[in-house]
Automatic annotation (TrEMBL):
Pfam families: OmpA. Keywords: Membrane, Transmembrane, Transmembrane helix. Residues 79-197 form the OmpA-like domain. This is OmpA family protein. The lineage of its organism: Bacteria, Thermotogati, Deinococcota, Deinococci, Deinococcales. GO terms for cellular component: membrane.
Amino acid sequence: MTRSRLHPDTNPYIAFSDLTLNLVFVLIFFVGGILAVGQAGWEQVRYRKAQDVVAQAVKQARLPARPLLLLPGQRNDPPGAQRWVFSSQQMFVGDTATLTPAGQEALVAFARVLRDQGQHWKRVRIEGHTQTSKPNTPERWSLSAGRASAVAEAFYLRGGISPNRLAVAARGGQTSYAGIKFDPRNERVEIVVEYAQQSGD
C-alpha cells in the first residue's frame, strides 16, 4: 500500500510575482526614506567644495578681526548657504550704525577675500541683528537695517563686491544668537554667502 503525497496547490509564477512585488515596495520605501531624510544633506554636499575653498581662503587671510563661521543647520537657510558672524561690539560705535575704523578695515578685508573667490558664490546677504527687545519696547528695526546697510556699503565701496550681488535684511531682535534673550552676542551682523549650483573649477 502506497501513501499518496499531498502537494499544495501553488503556482510558482504567482509566488515569484508576489516576491517581486514585495521587493519593489521595500525598495520604494527605502529610497523614499533616504530622499526624505537626506535631501537637505545631499543638497549641502553639492556645495561643499565651494564652501571649503572660501572657508580656507578666509582662514589663510590676515584679517584684523576673524568672523565666526556657523555650522550648517543652525539657521533656516537654503542648501549651500554659509553664515559668518561679526560681533557688533567690535564693528560699530556704541549703539549706532556707524562703523569703527577697525570694524571698517575688518569688513573690507573680509569682503576682498569673498571678491577674490567670487566664482564660487552667487550672492551675499547681509543681516543686521540687535538685542532682543524688552516687553513694551519697540523693535530696533532701523538700527539693524542701518548696520546691515553700512556693511553693504563697505563691501561694495571698498571691498570690490558688485552691488547687484548684495542683499540687505533687517532682523531686529527676532533671532537671538544662541536662543538666549538679552545675550550680548545678539548684537551682530551675519554675512550669508549663498553658493552657485556649480562651483568654478
